[in-house]
Amino acid sequence: MFSNTFRSIQKRLLNTKRPPGPSQLELLQESSRSSFLEFLSLGSSNLMRKYGDIIRLPNNQYLICSPEVFKYVLKTNVNNFSKVNMTYNRLKLIFGDGLITNEGPVWEQHRAILHPVFDRLKLEQYAPLMVKTTTEWMARWDQYLPSYIDISKEMGELTLRIAFRAFSNYEPSAHDLKTVTVLFKRGNPHISYAPLLKPWFPTPNNLLFFRSLRQLNKLLEKIIAQRRHSGNHFNDVIDILLNGKQTNNAPLSEFEILNEYKTLLITGYETTGCGLAWAYYLLATHPEYQIKMQEELVTVLKGRPPTIHDCTQLPITKAIFLETLRLYPSIWCLPRTVLQADTISGYPISAKSTLILNIYALHRNPLYWESPNVFYPPRFLNDAETKRHLFSYLPFSIGAHSCIGSIFGVMEGILLLATIGQKFSFEIVKKNKKYAAEPYVSLRLPASLKMRLVPLT
Ligand code: HEM
């Protein structure tokens, strides 16, 4: 009787209490001690140990690194958490109302229209195209021997070429590749540090960003118009969008086609490109896994190019890519706006609050991962995943807005590692230098990281 009353008072108190969080001074101390990313990972872990699953920050913001809260926000009560916030508003500058930025009935219709882009039959067609494009790409690398390559640029341009070919049967020039990659490079700080950089302010970065955006829109409009007038059909993204019908049977508008094509092209290359660049960084700093992967490739492939069927036959290669996405998730943070007052982890959260779903910290949460900062691919071998919390590993998010291209992305990661790994290994030029990730919308390797290609004999 007494304990029941005590519990109900405790529950009522919890329901009226705001989640705990660090003082301004403590925040300042944490953030001044390390880089922003270290603050969000190590700092988050420290704060989590001290304050629990949901950490109150200034300005009605809450930092989240707990699997249960990820599940609640992205799945259980997903309709109460919106993408309408500063980050997605800035992303709209690039994508307009594409899948990544949109919500509601229009998003639902477009997602259904684009679903066939990733069906089994199409994935079987993409696989040989990925391997062929990579083989052609590697032929250029002889010119870099014995000097070095910028691994982020190489992986970004390679995955972009694959996306252009797969989604629009288009052969991009070097200038086309540069237009897109410069756009995202310039757009990254533009989006990530939105409060500091007003889009209209004519900084050199902003001017370059808008110039690249105009050039890209022009290029994509030209590709779409050529297809429309050519009468050719490839059953690719462009055809699917040109033939797409909404529930009222109306075709998609010019704008909608452009935005969805641009969305798949950019999300499709930047994420996998970043993941692969990080994979090579990790392999170069952990040569024992580079050797293990090469041994697997020799045993399974015996010198032939990999196929889609090999994706299940190369567990070490796959584990290396998945572990890379754990340590360096390409999209590392998902901001969500609370629509109606809610209760999260027992605490009341008011409407209009911002939840910062920190995937980077979730993947390094010491409550769910042993030695969380260590690169250890065997975590993804022999069904180890089945023993973990279902929501402790979310590189592709979960729920209705989870990644539409996740199978494409993982397949591309494995096939590129397997194709390149039969010809080259990688070394870091400046081994003793510390390289910190650049936490923009995507998690980038610093451009200063140069790698040496070592041809396998
Ligand atoms: C390693 C590769 C990839 C990673 C780590 C990744 C990660 C993610 C994440 C975390 C989200 C949720 C974003 C949010 O809620 O705002 C997302 C959504 C999305 N991704 Fe990916 N992605 C990858 C590959 C791809 C590829 C290859 C494509 C397309 C070809 C793609 C297209 C999209 C799209 C269109 C969405 C928005 C989905 C929606 O809201 O309906 N992604 N991705």
Structural class: alpha+beta
Q: Mean of residue pLDDT?
A: 89
Radius of gyration equals 23 Å
Bound molecules: protoporphyrin IX containing FE
What is the CATH level 1 assignment?
A: Mainly Alpha
Could you describe the largest sheet, including whether it forms a barrel? 5 strands, mixed
Q: Would you identify the regions where 5 or more consecutive residues have pLDDT less than 50?
A: none
> Number of helical runs?
16
* Neighbour order of strands in the largest sheet: 1-2-8-5-3
Strand tally is 12
Helical content band: 40-55%
Written as H for each helix and E for each strand, in order along the chain, the element string is: HHHEEHEHHHEHHHHHHHEEEEHHEEEE
Provide the domain count: 1
In the CATH hierarchy, what is the superfamily?
Answer: Cytochrome P450
- Named CATH topology: Cytochrome p450
Please report which band the strand proportion falls in: under 5%, 5-15%, 15-25%, 25-35%, 35-45% or over 45%: 5-15%
Distance between the termini: 77 Å
* Shape designation: globular
CATH structural architecture: Orthogonal Bundle
In short:
By secondary structure, this protein is α+β, with helices and mostly antiparallel strands.
Architecture overview:
With 457 residues, this protein is an alpha+beta fold. The chain has a single domain, classed as Cytochrome P450 (Cytochrome p450, Orthogonal Bundle), CATH 1.10.630. It contains 16 helices and twelve strands. Strands 1-2-8-5-3 form a five-stranded mixed β-sheet, sandwiched between helices. It is globular. The chain binds protoporphyrin IX containing FE. Protoporphyrin IX containing FE binds next to helix 12 and helix 16.
